[in-house]
Amino acid sequence: MRRVRGNEEGAPDRVLPSREDPVARATSEVLGGPLGPRALAGVSAARALPVLLALTTLAMVLAVLVKQHCRTQGWDAPGQFVHLCYSDLPSLFFFRDIGSGAVPYLSDVPPDAVVEYPVLTGLVMWVTALLVPGSGETAERALTYFDVNVVGLAACALVLVWATAVTARRRPWDALLVAVSPSLVLAATVNWDLWAVALLALSMLAWARERPVLAGVLLGLATAAKFYPLLVLGPLLVLCLRAGLLRTWWRTLGAAVLAWLAVNVPVALAAPEEWARFYLFSRERGAGFSSVWYVMYQQGVGVPTVSALNLLATGLLVACCAGVAWLAVAAPRRPRLAQLAFLVVAAFLLTNKVYSPQYVLWLLPLAALARPVWRDHLVWTAGEVVHFVGIWLFLAGFPNDGDPDRALPEGPYGVTVLLHVAGTLWLVALVVRDVLHPEHDPVRASGDDDPHGGPLDGAPDRLVLGPARRAARARHAAPAVRP
Fold first, then answer.
1. What is the CA radius of gyration of the chain?
2. Is the per-residue pLDDT at 244 higher than 80?
3. Confidence band for 61, pLDDT divided at 50, 70 and 90
4. Which of 222, 200, 209, 196 is nearest to 167 (CA)?
5. Nearest to 356 by CA among 77, 116, 96, 88
6. Helices (DSSP H) in 188-305: which residue ranges?
7. Structure pTM?
Protein backbone atom coordinates (compact mmCIF):
# COMPACT_ATOMS: atom_id res chain seq x y z
CA MET A 1 0.00 0.00 0.00
CA ARG A 2 1.39 3.37 -1.01
CA ARG A 3 1.98 5.65 1.92
CA VAL A 4 0.52 9.15 1.57
CA ARG A 5 2.42 11.83 3.45
CA GLY A 6 1.70 15.49 4.05
CA ASN A 7 -1.45 17.13 2.84
CA GLU A 8 -3.94 15.54 0.51
CA GLU A 9 -3.89 16.30 -3.19
CA GLY A 10 -5.53 19.63 -3.91
CA ALA A 11 -5.12 21.01 -0.37
CA PRO A 12 -3.63 24.52 -0.11
CA ASP A 13 0.08 24.86 0.62
CA ARG A 14 -0.48 27.08 3.68
CA VAL A 15 -3.31 27.46 6.16
CA LEU A 16 -4.01 30.88 7.69
CA PRO A 17 -6.27 31.40 10.72
CA SER A 18 -7.65 34.63 9.25
CA ARG A 19 -9.05 32.64 6.31
CA GLU A 20 -10.44 29.59 8.10
CA ASP A 21 -11.10 30.56 11.75
CA PRO A 22 -14.17 32.80 12.40
CA VAL A 23 -12.69 34.47 15.49
CA ALA A 24 -9.31 35.08 13.85
CA ARG A 25 -11.08 36.38 10.74
CA ALA A 26 -13.13 38.85 12.78
CA THR A 27 -10.04 39.99 14.68
CA SER A 28 -8.08 40.48 11.45
CA GLU A 29 -10.58 43.15 10.34
CA VAL A 30 -8.71 45.56 12.61
CA LEU A 31 -5.64 45.04 10.40
CA GLY A 32 -7.48 45.12 7.09
CA GLY A 33 -9.16 41.73 6.96
CA PRO A 34 -8.02 38.27 5.80
CA LEU A 35 -5.27 37.98 3.22
CA GLY A 36 -6.34 37.81 -0.39
CA PRO A 37 -5.02 35.35 -3.01
CA ARG A 38 -2.11 37.58 -4.06
CA ALA A 39 -0.99 38.27 -0.51
CA LEU A 40 -1.37 34.61 0.36
CA ALA A 41 1.12 33.69 -2.35
CA GLY A 42 3.81 35.60 -0.46
CA VAL A 43 3.13 34.07 2.93
CA SER A 44 5.37 31.21 4.07
CA ALA A 45 6.45 29.56 7.30
CA ALA A 46 9.80 31.34 7.05
CA ARG A 47 8.03 34.71 6.93
CA ALA A 48 5.70 33.76 9.76
CA LEU A 49 8.52 32.98 12.20
CA PRO A 50 9.88 36.54 12.63
CA VAL A 51 6.38 37.78 13.43
CA LEU A 52 5.77 34.94 15.86
CA LEU A 53 9.09 35.47 17.63
CA ALA A 54 8.53 39.23 17.83
CA LEU A 55 5.13 38.69 19.43
CA THR A 56 6.65 36.18 21.85
CA THR A 57 9.27 38.75 22.85
CA LEU A 58 6.48 41.26 23.44
CA ALA A 59 4.62 38.71 25.57
CA MET A 60 7.70 38.16 27.74
CA VAL A 61 8.15 41.90 28.16
CA LEU A 62 4.57 42.04 29.38
CA ALA A 63 5.32 39.10 31.68
CA VAL A 64 8.01 41.22 33.36
CA LEU A 65 5.75 44.28 33.54
CA VAL A 66 3.13 42.18 35.33
CA LYS A 67 5.75 41.60 38.04
CA GLN A 68 6.81 45.25 38.19
CA HIS A 69 5.30 45.97 41.61
CA CYS A 70 7.36 43.17 43.13
CA ARG A 71 10.44 44.17 41.18
CA THR A 72 10.31 47.65 42.70
CA GLN A 73 8.75 46.97 46.13
CA GLY A 74 10.07 43.47 46.82
CA TRP A 75 8.50 40.02 47.02
CA ASP A 76 6.85 40.39 50.40
CA ALA A 77 3.43 39.17 51.55
CA PRO A 78 0.70 40.21 51.17
CA GLY A 79 1.80 42.70 48.51
CA GLN A 80 3.11 40.04 46.13
CA PHE A 81 -0.29 38.33 46.23
CA VAL A 82 -2.51 41.40 46.15
CA HIS A 83 -0.63 42.76 43.12
CA LEU A 84 -0.57 39.35 41.40
CA CYS A 85 3.21 39.34 41.03
CA TYR A 86 4.24 36.30 43.06
CA SER A 87 7.14 34.22 41.74
CA ASP A 88 8.98 31.22 43.13
CA LEU A 89 12.25 32.46 41.63
CA PRO A 90 13.34 35.11 44.18
CA SER A 91 11.75 33.23 47.09
CA LEU A 92 13.62 29.99 46.52
CA PHE A 93 16.87 31.87 45.86
CA PHE A 94 17.12 32.32 49.62
CA PHE A 95 14.81 29.61 51.00
CA ARG A 96 16.89 26.88 49.31
CA ASP A 97 20.21 28.51 50.31
CA ILE A 98 21.20 28.91 46.65
CA GLY A 99 21.87 32.58 47.31
CA SER A 100 24.37 31.54 49.96
CA GLY A 101 26.38 29.42 47.54
CA ALA A 102 24.79 26.03 48.25
CA VAL A 103 24.87 23.51 45.40
CA PRO A 104 21.47 21.83 45.00
CA TYR A 105 21.40 18.24 46.32
CA LEU A 106 25.16 18.20 47.10
CA SER A 107 25.65 20.84 49.79
CA ASP A 108 24.93 20.23 53.48
CA VAL A 109 21.78 22.29 54.12
CA PRO A 110 18.87 22.00 56.57
CA PRO A 111 16.16 19.50 55.55
CA ASP A 112 13.69 22.25 54.65
CA ALA A 113 16.27 23.83 52.29
CA VAL A 114 16.75 20.77 50.06
CA VAL A 115 15.64 21.48 46.47
CA GLU A 116 12.37 19.69 45.76
CA TYR A 117 12.66 19.73 41.95
CA PRO A 118 14.11 17.26 39.44
CA VAL A 119 17.81 17.49 38.74
CA LEU A 120 17.81 19.55 35.55
CA THR A 121 15.65 22.24 37.15
CA GLY A 122 17.99 22.25 40.15
CA LEU A 123 20.89 22.71 37.76
CA VAL A 124 19.20 25.75 36.19
CA MET A 125 18.53 27.19 39.65
CA TRP A 126 22.20 26.83 40.59
CA VAL A 127 23.78 28.08 37.35
CA THR A 128 21.65 31.21 37.28
CA ALA A 129 22.55 31.86 40.95
CA LEU A 130 26.23 31.92 39.97
CA LEU A 131 25.51 34.99 37.85
CA VAL A 132 24.25 37.00 40.83
CA PRO A 133 27.02 39.14 42.38
CA GLY A 134 27.39 40.05 46.03
CA SER A 135 26.35 38.21 49.16
CA GLY A 136 23.63 38.23 51.78
CA GLU A 137 19.84 38.15 51.61
CA THR A 138 19.25 41.52 50.03
CA ALA A 139 16.38 42.70 47.84
CA GLU A 140 18.85 43.72 45.13
CA ARG A 141 20.22 40.18 44.83
CA ALA A 142 16.71 38.68 44.72
CA LEU A 143 15.80 41.09 41.91
CA THR A 144 18.98 40.24 39.99
CA TYR A 145 18.29 36.53 40.33
CA PHE A 146 14.75 37.03 39.04
CA ASP A 147 15.95 39.08 36.05
CA VAL A 148 18.68 36.58 35.16
CA ASN A 149 16.15 33.77 35.16
CA VAL A 150 13.71 35.81 33.09
CA VAL A 151 16.31 35.99 30.33
CA GLY A 152 16.56 32.20 30.32
CA LEU A 153 12.79 31.78 30.44
CA ALA A 154 12.36 34.23 27.56
CA ALA A 155 14.81 32.14 25.50
CA CYS A 156 12.73 29.07 26.36
CA ALA A 157 9.56 30.85 25.24
CA LEU A 158 11.15 31.75 21.90
CA VAL A 159 12.31 28.15 21.40
CA LEU A 160 8.85 26.91 22.35
CA VAL A 161 7.04 29.09 19.82
CA TRP A 162 9.58 28.36 17.08
CA ALA A 163 9.36 24.61 17.65
CA THR A 164 5.55 24.70 17.74
CA ALA A 165 5.38 26.68 14.50
CA VAL A 166 7.81 24.39 12.65
CA THR A 167 6.09 21.27 13.99
CA ALA A 168 2.76 22.56 12.66
CA ARG A 169 4.22 22.57 9.11
CA ARG A 170 1.57 24.09 6.85
CA ARG A 171 -0.09 25.78 9.84
CA PRO A 172 2.75 27.81 11.44
CA TRP A 173 0.33 30.52 12.52
CA ASP A 174 -1.23 28.07 14.99
CA ALA A 175 1.76 28.95 17.16
CA LEU A 176 0.12 32.35 17.66
CA LEU A 177 -2.07 30.58 20.19
CA VAL A 178 1.10 30.19 22.26
CA ALA A 179 2.88 33.44 21.42
CA VAL A 180 0.02 35.81 22.32
CA SER A 181 -1.62 33.74 25.02
CA PRO A 182 -2.42 35.59 28.27
CA SER A 183 -1.47 32.35 30.02
CA LEU A 184 2.11 32.75 28.76
CA VAL A 185 2.21 36.35 30.01
CA LEU A 186 0.85 35.52 33.45
CA ALA A 187 2.52 32.17 34.17
CA ALA A 188 5.89 32.31 32.38
CA THR A 189 7.86 33.72 35.32
CA VAL A 190 6.13 31.94 38.21
CA ASN A 191 8.52 28.97 38.13
CA TRP A 192 11.03 27.23 35.86
CA ASP A 193 8.41 25.18 33.97
CA LEU A 194 9.21 26.74 30.58
CA TRP A 195 12.51 24.81 30.46
CA ALA A 196 10.69 21.48 30.42
CA VAL A 197 7.96 22.81 28.11
CA ALA A 198 10.54 23.99 25.56
CA LEU A 199 12.46 20.70 25.70
CA LEU A 200 9.26 18.72 25.12
CA ALA A 201 8.39 20.97 22.17
CA LEU A 202 11.82 20.27 20.67
CA SER A 203 11.30 16.55 21.26
CA MET A 204 7.99 16.63 19.39
CA LEU A 205 9.65 18.56 16.56
CA ALA A 206 12.38 15.93 16.31
CA TRP A 207 9.71 13.21 16.19
CA ALA A 208 7.83 15.13 13.49
CA ARG A 209 11.10 15.28 11.51
CA GLU A 210 11.40 11.46 11.87
CA ARG A 211 14.41 11.57 14.18
CA PRO A 212 13.23 9.22 16.94
CA VAL A 213 16.56 8.95 18.76
CA LEU A 214 16.95 12.73 19.05
CA ALA A 215 13.30 12.93 20.10
CA GLY A 216 14.03 10.43 22.87
CA VAL A 217 17.09 12.31 24.09
CA LEU A 218 15.15 15.58 24.30
CA LEU A 219 12.23 13.82 25.97
CA GLY A 220 14.57 12.34 28.58
CA LEU A 221 16.04 15.79 29.28
CA ALA A 222 12.55 17.28 29.55
CA THR A 223 11.61 14.58 32.08
CA ALA A 224 14.78 15.42 34.01
CA ALA A 225 13.41 18.97 34.37
CA LYS A 226 9.75 18.11 35.12
CA PHE A 227 8.01 14.77 35.43
CA TYR A 228 5.09 15.30 33.05
CA PRO A 229 6.91 14.93 29.66
CA LEU A 230 7.31 11.23 30.47
CA LEU A 231 3.55 10.88 29.87
CA VAL A 232 3.98 11.50 26.14
CA LEU A 233 5.61 8.09 25.77
CA GLY A 234 2.17 6.51 26.37
CA PRO A 235 0.44 8.08 23.35
CA LEU A 236 3.51 7.32 21.24
CA LEU A 237 3.33 3.68 22.27
CA VAL A 238 -0.32 3.09 21.39
CA LEU A 239 -0.08 5.04 18.13
CA CYS A 240 3.03 3.10 17.07
CA LEU A 241 1.24 -0.11 18.08
CA ARG A 242 -1.67 0.75 15.79
CA ALA A 243 0.67 1.69 12.94
CA GLY A 244 3.04 -1.25 13.42
CA LEU A 245 6.01 0.98 14.30
CA LEU A 246 6.99 -0.47 17.66
CA ARG A 247 10.67 -0.66 16.69
CA THR A 248 10.70 3.10 16.23
CA TRP A 249 9.06 3.58 19.63
CA TRP A 250 11.64 1.37 21.32
CA ARG A 251 14.43 3.50 19.88
CA THR A 252 12.79 6.62 21.29
CA LEU A 253 12.25 5.00 24.67
CA GLY A 254 15.84 3.77 24.87
CA ALA A 255 17.24 7.20 24.04
CA ALA A 256 14.93 8.86 26.59
CA VAL A 257 15.97 6.47 29.36
CA LEU A 258 19.68 6.92 28.63
CA ALA A 259 19.38 10.72 28.58
CA TRP A 260 17.45 10.73 31.86
CA LEU A 261 19.97 8.41 33.49
CA ALA A 262 22.90 10.51 32.29
CA VAL A 263 21.50 13.51 34.16
CA ASN A 264 20.19 11.76 37.26
CA VAL A 265 22.61 8.92 38.07
CA PRO A 266 25.61 11.10 39.09
CA VAL A 267 23.47 13.10 41.52
CA ALA A 268 21.65 10.01 42.80
CA LEU A 269 24.96 8.30 43.58
CA ALA A 270 26.48 11.36 45.23
CA ALA A 271 23.44 12.35 47.32
CA PRO A 272 20.69 9.70 47.18
CA GLU A 273 18.46 11.19 49.88
CA GLU A 274 18.59 14.71 48.47
CA TRP A 275 18.05 13.42 44.92
CA ALA A 276 14.97 11.51 46.08
CA ARG A 277 13.49 14.61 47.72
CA PHE A 278 11.34 15.43 44.67
CA TYR A 279 9.80 11.97 44.51
CA LEU A 280 9.22 11.70 48.27
CA PHE A 281 7.76 15.19 48.42
CA SER A 282 5.36 14.37 45.56
CA ARG A 283 4.20 11.27 47.40
CA GLU A 284 3.90 12.80 50.88
CA ARG A 285 2.25 16.13 50.09
CA GLY A 286 -1.50 16.51 50.49
CA ALA A 287 -4.07 18.21 48.27
CA GLY A 288 -2.50 21.36 46.83
CA PHE A 289 -3.91 24.70 45.84
CA SER A 290 -5.90 24.94 42.60
CA SER A 291 -6.82 21.26 42.53
CA VAL A 292 -10.31 19.81 42.80
CA TRP A 293 -9.08 17.87 45.83
CA TYR A 294 -8.32 21.10 47.67
CA VAL A 295 -11.80 22.49 46.96
CA MET A 296 -13.26 19.25 48.29
CA TYR A 297 -11.11 19.63 51.39
CA GLN A 298 -12.43 23.18 51.87
CA GLN A 299 -15.99 21.86 51.69
CA GLY A 300 -15.29 19.17 54.26
CA VAL A 301 -15.48 16.21 51.88
CA GLY A 302 -11.77 15.62 51.37
CA VAL A 303 -10.00 12.26 51.23
CA PRO A 304 -9.08 11.29 54.83
CA THR A 305 -5.37 10.43 54.37
CA VAL A 306 -2.57 11.26 51.96
CA SER A 307 -2.06 7.60 51.10
CA ALA A 308 -5.74 7.26 50.22
CA LEU A 309 -5.55 10.42 48.11
CA ASN A 310 -2.48 9.06 46.29
CA LEU A 311 -4.33 5.83 45.56
CA LEU A 312 -7.47 7.61 44.34
CA ALA A 313 -5.62 10.14 42.18
CA THR A 314 -3.41 7.43 40.66
CA GLY A 315 -6.40 5.18 39.99
CA LEU A 316 -8.26 7.97 38.21
CA LEU A 317 -5.20 8.79 36.12
CA VAL A 318 -4.75 5.15 35.11
CA ALA A 319 -8.43 4.95 34.14
CA CYS A 320 -8.13 8.11 32.03
CA CYS A 321 -4.98 6.83 30.33
CA ALA A 322 -6.74 3.53 29.59
CA GLY A 323 -9.52 5.51 27.95
CA VAL A 324 -7.02 7.43 25.84
CA ALA A 325 -5.37 4.15 24.82
CA TRP A 326 -8.74 2.79 23.74
CA LEU A 327 -9.32 5.92 21.67
CA ALA A 328 -5.95 5.40 20.01
CA VAL A 329 -6.74 1.91 18.73
CA ALA A 330 -10.53 2.11 18.34
CA ALA A 331 -11.12 5.54 16.79
CA PRO A 332 -12.36 5.33 13.19
CA ARG A 333 -9.19 7.12 12.07
CA ARG A 334 -5.88 6.99 13.90
CA PRO A 335 -5.72 10.05 16.23
CA ARG A 336 -3.02 12.63 15.84
CA LEU A 337 -0.10 12.55 18.27
CA ALA A 338 -0.78 16.06 19.58
CA GLN A 339 -4.37 15.13 20.37
CA LEU A 340 -3.45 12.16 22.54
CA ALA A 341 -0.53 13.97 24.18
CA PHE A 342 -2.86 16.80 25.16
CA LEU A 343 -5.44 14.38 26.55
CA VAL A 344 -2.91 12.49 28.66
CA VAL A 345 -1.27 15.60 30.15
CA ALA A 346 -4.70 17.14 30.81
CA ALA A 347 -5.79 13.94 32.56
CA PHE A 348 -2.68 14.11 34.73
CA LEU A 349 -3.40 17.70 35.73
CA LEU A 350 -7.09 17.16 36.38
CA THR A 351 -6.53 14.13 38.60
CA ASN A 352 -3.29 15.27 40.24
CA LYS A 353 -3.10 16.44 43.85
CA VAL A 354 -1.64 19.74 42.68
CA TYR A 355 -2.72 21.91 39.73
CA SER A 356 -0.56 25.01 40.15
CA PRO A 357 -1.37 28.06 37.99
CA GLN A 358 1.86 27.79 35.97
CA TYR A 359 0.96 24.25 34.91
CA VAL A 360 -1.18 25.78 32.18
CA LEU A 361 2.12 26.16 30.30
CA TRP A 362 2.32 22.36 30.05
CA LEU A 363 -0.87 22.29 28.03
CA LEU A 364 -0.39 25.45 25.98
CA PRO A 365 1.66 24.14 23.01
CA LEU A 366 -0.14 20.78 23.03
CA ALA A 367 -3.51 22.53 22.89
CA ALA A 368 -2.34 24.73 20.01
CA LEU A 369 -1.46 21.63 17.98
CA ALA A 370 -4.38 19.47 19.11
CA ARG A 371 -7.23 21.96 18.73
CA PRO A 372 -6.14 25.13 16.86
CA VAL A 373 -9.47 26.94 17.13
CA TRP A 374 -9.36 30.46 18.56
CA ARG A 375 -12.83 30.44 20.12
CA ASP A 376 -12.07 27.34 22.16
CA HIS A 377 -8.74 28.70 23.34
CA LEU A 378 -10.40 31.92 24.44
CA VAL A 379 -12.91 29.97 26.53
CA TRP A 380 -10.14 27.90 28.10
CA THR A 381 -7.89 30.91 28.69
CA ALA A 382 -10.70 32.89 30.32
CA GLY A 383 -11.00 30.25 33.04
CA GLU A 384 -7.22 30.22 33.55
CA VAL A 385 -7.01 34.01 33.87
CA VAL A 386 -9.85 34.10 36.41
CA HIS A 387 -8.14 31.37 38.40
CA PHE A 388 -4.77 33.15 38.22
CA VAL A 389 -6.33 36.18 39.90
CA GLY A 390 -8.23 34.00 42.36
CA ILE A 391 -5.28 31.96 43.65
CA TRP A 392 -3.12 34.97 44.54
CA LEU A 393 -5.95 36.94 46.14
CA PHE A 394 -6.86 33.86 48.16
CA LEU A 395 -3.26 33.47 49.39
CA ALA A 396 -3.26 37.15 50.35
CA GLY A 397 -5.46 36.26 53.31
CA PHE A 398 -3.32 33.53 54.83
CA PRO A 399 -2.31 33.94 58.49
CA ASN A 400 0.85 35.69 59.70
CA ASP A 401 1.60 37.87 56.66
CA GLY A 402 -1.95 37.95 55.24
CA ASP A 403 -4.42 40.80 54.83
CA PRO A 404 -7.96 39.39 55.12
CA ASP A 405 -9.49 42.71 54.10
CA ARG A 406 -7.99 42.44 50.62
CA ALA A 407 -8.17 38.65 50.30
CA LEU A 408 -10.60 36.44 48.41
CA PRO A 409 -12.76 34.21 50.65
CA GLU A 410 -12.79 30.44 50.31
CA GLY A 411 -16.10 30.24 48.47
CA PRO A 412 -15.26 32.57 45.55
CA TYR A 413 -11.78 31.06 45.37
CA GLY A 414 -13.28 27.59 44.98
CA VAL A 415 -15.38 28.93 42.10
CA THR A 416 -12.23 30.14 40.30
CA VAL A 417 -10.69 26.68 40.70
CA LEU A 418 -13.78 25.05 39.22
CA LEU A 419 -13.72 27.53 36.33
CA HIS A 420 -10.16 26.70 35.33
CA VAL A 421 -10.90 22.98 35.66
CA ALA A 422 -14.08 23.40 33.60
CA GLY A 423 -12.13 25.23 30.89
CA THR A 424 -9.67 22.36 30.64
CA LEU A 425 -12.53 19.84 30.52
CA TRP A 426 -14.14 21.90 27.74
CA LEU A 427 -11.03 21.60 25.61
CA VAL A 428 -10.66 17.90 26.47
CA ALA A 429 -14.24 17.21 25.34
CA LEU A 430 -13.65 18.95 22.01
CA VAL A 431 -10.44 17.03 21.34
CA VAL A 432 -12.19 13.74 22.13
CA ARG A 433 -14.97 14.70 19.72
CA ASP A 434 -12.39 15.45 17.02
CA VAL A 435 -10.87 12.01 17.56
CA LEU A 436 -14.22 10.24 17.30
CA HIS A 437 -15.42 12.42 14.41
CA PRO A 438 -12.34 13.43 12.38
CA GLU A 439 -14.44 15.66 10.14
CA HIS A 440 -14.53 18.16 13.03
CA ASP A 441 -10.73 18.21 13.36
CA PRO A 442 -9.52 21.54 11.90
CA VAL A 443 -6.09 20.10 11.03
CA ARG A 444 -7.53 17.22 9.04
CA ALA A 445 -10.22 19.44 7.55
CA SER A 446 -7.38 21.43 5.96
CA GLY A 447 -6.09 18.28 4.24
CA ASP A 448 -3.43 16.88 6.59
CA ASP A 449 -3.19 13.47 8.23
CA ASP A 450 -0.82 13.90 11.20
CA PRO A 451 1.76 16.61 10.42
CA HIS A 452 3.17 16.29 13.95
CA GLY A 453 3.33 12.49 13.84
CA GLY A 454 6.58 11.99 11.92
CA PRO A 455 6.66 8.30 10.92
CA LEU A 456 2.96 8.05 11.84
CA ASP A 457 1.94 10.58 9.21
CA GLY A 458 0.15 8.68 6.46
CA ALA A 459 1.19 5.28 7.81
CA PRO A 460 -1.33 2.42 7.28
CA ASP A 461 -3.03 0.82 10.27
CA ARG A 462 -1.80 -2.58 11.51
CA LEU A 463 -3.90 -2.99 14.65
CA VAL A 464 -7.44 -1.67 15.08
CA LEU A 465 -10.27 -2.55 17.44
CA GLY A 466 -13.99 -1.93 17.76
CA PRO A 467 -15.26 1.05 15.73
CA ALA A 468 -11.95 1.35 13.88
CA ARG A 469 -12.28 -2.24 12.62
CA ARG A 470 -15.86 -1.66 11.47
CA ALA A 471 -14.83 1.56 9.72
CA ALA A 472 -12.01 -0.29 7.95
CA ARG A 473 -14.39 -3.03 6.81
CA ALA A 474 -16.82 -0.41 5.49
CA ARG A 475 -14.06 1.23 3.47
CA HIS A 476 -12.97 -2.09 1.96
CA ALA A 477 -16.57 -3.06 1.21
CA ALA A 478 -17.36 0.20 -0.59
CA PRO A 479 -17.62 -0.28 -4.37
CA ALA A 480 -14.82 1.14 -6.44
CA VAL A 481 -15.68 4.32 -8.35
CA ARG A 482 -14.23 4.63 -11.83
CA PRO A 483 -13.11 8.11 -12.81
1. 23
2. yes
3. very high
4. 209
5. 88
6. 193-208, 212-225, 233-243, 246-270, 272-275, 277-284, 292-298
7. 0.90
